[in-house]
Amino acid sequence: MFQDRPPRIYRALAEPGVRRTVWAALLPRRRRALARLGVPLAAASVDLAVIVCTTLLLEYAYAYTMEAGLPASSHLRAWRLAGLLALVVLCANTLRGSYMIESLLDRRPHLQRIASLWLAAWGAVLVVSFVTKTTTDFSRAVAAGTFVLGLPALMAGRALTARVVRRLALPGSSSVARVHLVGYEEDIARFYAGNQADALGLRVVGTSYLRAPTPGADPAARQAQMDEDLDLAVSVVRFLRPDDVFILVPWASTAEVERCIDAFLRVPAALHLRPGTVLDRFPDMQVSRVGRLSGINIGRRPLNLAEVALKRAFDLAATLVALALLAPLLGAVALAIKLDSPGPVFFRQKRYGFNQQPFWVFKFRSMRAEADAPFRQATRSDARVTRVGAFLRRTNLDELPQLLNVLKGEMSLVGPRPHALAHDRSFERRIALYARRHNVRPGITGWAQVNGLRGETLTDADMQARVAHDLHYIDNWSLWFDLQIIVRTVLSPRAYDNAF
After folding, report:
1. Helix (H/G/I), strand (E/B), else coil: 385
2. What's the distance, Cα to Cα, between the start and end of the chain in Å?
3. CA dihedral defined by 161, 165, 167, 171, rounded to 10 degrees?
4. 452: which residues sit within 8 A by CB, 6+ positions away?
């Protein structure tokens, strides 16, 4: 039946391994449905087992060690604590789709999301215990042990689950989606060059090549050729029974895309339009609705309202604690500055903050006061730096007054470092996406700084590296990420690189 067709069109039936899967195509569909249901249930069961086992083991160990036996109340309080933690973790992961096969196949690390969720679960435990006046019912030792040991146990369980799923989700596995590709030869070749089936969590069971239009061809002949190719492609799809059909025809070819849609809406498979190379820059894009208007969302707000509230609450709490603990140090630094050189204790400079709104940033003065001197970036062995100022800059203590900016809401503890206005205007014209740094509040420290990207920027490459780290932070923010950066700011030697 295919002898009068161009050989490229029915290449799907000649590909190695496809003949074996064609005759089994009627059977895997049920197994695939069971697998796509069973994998999330198994992943959720692993989290549940980890939380329950960790809590019960610690409760029983504490009871036998400290209470010389196992009181009847231990059963109840252990199960209550484990149940509340599991409820928060499982519900949140289910709503976020973290148990789906696609999420488990994601090569990006799950550790930050798990850590943030674990902190949120314990926050829920504290709130519920406070409201119900049951905080004294829980053993502090068991609660602390569960908090400390539960997180690495959850991470280990998720790593093991993801590894098993990735091992099972091979291109030949019945658990992955079976996909058929339709498009012009160069577009399909580009798809294969830029993607690997196992990394995408799918299996390509067939490929239908459409003949490219001949320049100057008669429109009626072109339409007949397209109809002929699509009729054969639909027949192949009906025979192979894939789960999904991807149309790789460029969106600019509107008429051809419309004909493909009309053709493949007649087959029992999910139909997808694959975006062109321009939209490949945005891996997280999705179709969204604003009111009654639909559009392709290629970028969300850097932080949603809940994330903004969480980050601000953390900033305020941590800043108040830091100011209380560091008050003696701040006083000592201020006295040392006054004794070392004449001039004010604080240095103020206008910089751009969130949404490019200017604000006055505070720092301990580390240079000699020079009235009406034009701004010039500090360099290594700068003669303007005072003896006390050199120590403050090497140890990052000159940045501590910016805690006041955090209290005022102009800055955050962690975020892209604000630059002088002259530098902002200059780099915005020369560095792509530089202005995206202003989509979040600037920070006292940041991901670029703890990676040694601070100090003098001699070339555009220096600033490009800094901006790349800042944008990575914006796109991957989490409370756990902020905590990591704060710890590394204090303890990591790289955070002190180029400090002069």
Report:
1. strand
2. 78
3. -170
4. 494, 495, 497, 498
